Structures
1.
Amino acid sequence: MAARLLAHLRELASAPQERPSAERREGILTPREQEVLDLIAQGLRDHEIAEQLVLAKVTVKTHVQHILRKLGARNRAEAVARARVGLP
């Protein structure tokens, strides 16, 4: 997972992209979505996230879908990479 994340970071950093204003980046994720994203970044799976946050697994899946959509990411590793480097 770490190798994939680093590869995505390098790919995203090298791709020319329009940087959004600070206002657009702030608050893009809800506090709960940010918690879920942080746990994804730690390598936890949906059922582990659900247990830790005391949520239903289907609720975690919904949060993950929202995170991917809001960050314009194709997968979890890309979402983590985009969030960490502040890309849209």
2.
Amino acid sequence: MISFFSLRMVPAAVCAASLFAGSAFAADVSGTWSATVDLGSRHGTPTFVLKQAGDALSGTYSGALGDSDLTGSVKQSVVDFSFTAMGATVKYDGKLDASGNTINGTVDYGGQASGTFTASRK
């Protein structure tokens, strides 16, 4: 026999399960990443060390522009971060693939140059 109380709890239980299921699929991009950047006539191979805490992202960039601290966010498989180098804001916008080991996206060097990047987890 099903009681009124147990019927009222079903929607709450389904909602709670949905919330936990959604967080189970959140990406964790913490670690060291080797990237290739294609700006058309110029190419680069920076390294990123990323640290994720919830949706917040911090870490470092190391490459042709020197070393810089970066900040950003991770929302499901969307990864965005930026840093300042030589007076310009450099912004990376990417998407983590299903394996969780590759990020593909676009990069903008403060309006001076733009292109694409691929980063692989070391």
3.
Amino acid sequence: MVVQYNCLGCGRDTTLPSTYYNFEGPIKCSLCQIIQIVSISSGYLTKHYLPFDTSLSSDILQIENAPDSINDDIREAQLCNTVEAHKGCVVLCRRALEGICDDKGANGQTLYTKIKSLHEKGILSKIDVEYYHEIRFFGNYGAHPTNDLLGDVTKDDSDIVLELILHLVRHVYEMPDKIDTLKERRKSANE
């Protein structure tokens, strides 16, 4: 018998194996990797909460039209920032950035070359390239410990990196539809 629950992180239905039939303690969502605390008795969920103040997660943004994988990284980055895990936040922002590059067909083996590729294809403006590289720099601190400046990542740093990635994801995935909506409205007004 499997135990079913609705993840408090991603909101999706998830199952646990029968070994959790009687269990109390932390679990990790297999879909979004968010840790949650559960109490399960005879296969039924009796307690279920996040290990931090859930009111903190009420402002978590999801970007319309962005792929689930990118929204998952951004959601987790926001949660990290909320609980002052600033290093984790900047690393997840970098991961989301690479996800955008891959989704938009960037060429190259490194994130640097992928960003350059999107600029050459006209997908990124010069200022967007600057934003991408700043996120890449901070995220690289976590990906490459030999360059580890993560000890110096402050709340202000992670706030800025998070703000940049949210701006970029909106720019890439939400704004084109909004612009199309305005164009359609203008067209219908001129007819």
4.
Amino acid sequence: MSSLNTNNGPNTKKEEKTKLLTGSNNRVEELAIQDFLYIYNHERDKKTAYFLWFFLGLGGIHHIYLRRYLHFIICVLWLWITFSFLYIKMYVLCFAVPYIVVWLIDGLRMQHLVDIANNDIVPKEKKINPWSVYDIYLFWIPPFGIGGLHHFYTGYYWRFVTYLFSLGFIGFGWLLDLVLIPCYYYPKLKQSFLNKIENKEVFVKHHKTKGQLWMCWFPFNGWLGLHHYYCGDISLGICYTLTCGGWLLGWLLDLFLLNHFYRRFDENIEKQHDKWKKENDIGNVSATDNESKHFRPKYPLIFKKTYYHAYITWLSGLCVFGFQHLYLQNWIIFLGHILTFGGAGIMWIVDFFLLPSFVRYSNERLGLIEKVGENDVGNNITNNGDNKMDDNNNNNNNVIISNLESYKNNQVKQVQYNFETEYRHALYTTYLYWFPLIGLVGAYYIYLRQYKQFILRLFTLNFFLIGWIIDLFRIPSLVRNKLKEEESQNNNNRNEHLIQ
């Protein structure tokens, strides 16, 4: 009986473990999962690996057995490129000879590769570092190395993108990596290996560097706006991508602003970090803290809009696309420019004079600058309310009335300023959607939130274009009525909030 118990012990433990992992009560399912886990997690055999390397290694099959899937894909692409240019003998020698050399080196390193493959079944915190200088050099070999595949393999994705679009900086960066790989990458890999063993992580706010920023500015990367993507300015990066760096003018002028872009990005992350420390009540983060407590920057970042970039994107819009509003994140106006071809080019000319006000309006709307008197008015209300409530607990109604009166008196200038700003912005947008072709069906009534009027004019072709012509003169009054209704509704909501 004891022998039976000892023989069944390991099997029962294995079955219980599988049952816990799968949550299954079916005996057939448990056995099937056990067989699958056994096959999948089975250690790789050195003899089998040598057999596949010798007979099928030129096709990269041994890489599949050793769980080196990226290496297998590279082998397939390498062979495809070689056989595609068989008529060029020198080209075949340049690619076939290195391929055979790599295949021979894999045979010499087979024991090490098998050890790495078997290590994949060990939990992640106990893994050894699978990278080596040899593997990095393997991906450095052209043509893939010129595209920066060795950077992709080592996890430097931004460098991979910059190499991909600049062909390894026209070959100079690729040649320089021949020297930098052993002296630059290996210490970092070794340090990451030690950190993983000791379960430590070095705390940094971000990993962006000025050197990488300059690499992103280099052509053809900068022509696609990669330096703006790198610094987190997504809307400006899209404008550069669509206009080839502002027809190269913006790209050239950005040469003198790269340090400013990096400093602006660093300050933004620093503000996030300070806010994160206050919210979590953390002074210094040690290396042994829980991973969930580590600071992670939030993307995308929103930066203060500038006149310089507004006019660069305006110039690159070429009367039609309205990229200046894409940069300012005025999505409704940008869509109107696309649908009306920049208001037949008229609104593009008008934008030259209105861009400064649009920049200020966009910064206020995004919360990048304070509105006129907003904080002062809010502080006065709260301070007056707190003081009077403390001094006169029996006169609550008088306090509310005095707060409302002081609030209205102090906000007269601000309300006028905001109303005029909103009026100019809304008037511009309404006239933009009035232009044909979308104006002929009354699309501007959607912006004015008069949906019944829009449906009526849609099915009557704007009263056979008569209503469209009349609305050319009625739009200012329609916009004023819309803003006054919104203002009265906001005031009522604000007064109810104060009374409560």
